Amino acid sequence: MNGKQMLGMVVGAVALGFGLLGGASAADEGKTQEPTYESSIKVKEQNHGERGEAARLAAQAKINSTQATSAALAQVPGTVLKAELDNENGNLVYSVKVKTASNEVKDVKVDAGNGKVLQVGGDEEDNDKE
After folding, report:
1. CB atoms within 10 A of CB 49
2. Residues contacting residue 71 through CB under 8 Å, at least 6 positions apart
3. Most-buried pick from 12, 75, 87, 100 (CB within 10 A)?
4. Are the C-beta atoms of 93 and 110 separated by less than 8 Å?
5. How many domains, in total, are found in the chain?
6. pLDDT band at 127 (very low <50, low <70, confident <90, very high)
């Protein structure tokens, strides 16, 4: 095999590799990123432990959990089971679990910066417990 043939094979293999990577990237673009919402406060992932992260997140929040639960209940009437400040893929939100009159548990995401409800979803984990 001469140098030109070898070079042609290498270039072909590299082109094929880039084509495969491009196809995989295009396939990823069709997937929905979770969460689908964006909050007004962006946070970075850090590994300071649970306690360290909770304090860091609380320092960045512009509303408190009482305000977040009020916003959640205005959107989804019921009983608040739990409210916690979370970093959801870089979005600072309160995750408020609300049990409705029909015994459904809803996970309401409230923007920790402005108190707007960003998403209301079911909570299969809590529904399984009841």
Report:
1. 8
2. 108, 110, 115, 116, 117
3. 87
4. yes
5. 2
6. very low
107 and 62 housed in the same domain: yes
Q: Judge if 66 and 119 occupy the same domain.
A: yes
* Owning domain of residue 116: 40-129
Q: pLDDT per residue over 42-70, tens digit each?
A: 888 766 566 678 888 999 999 999 999 99
Check whether residue 84 and residue 22 sit in a common domain: no
Statement to judge: residues 64 and 106 lie in one domain: yes
Q: How far apart are CA 129 and CA 121, in angstroms?
A: 17
Structure-model confidence comparison of residues 9 and 97, the more confident one: 97
Q: What is the pTM of this model?
A: 0.67
Q: Are residues 6 and 48 in the same domain?
A: no
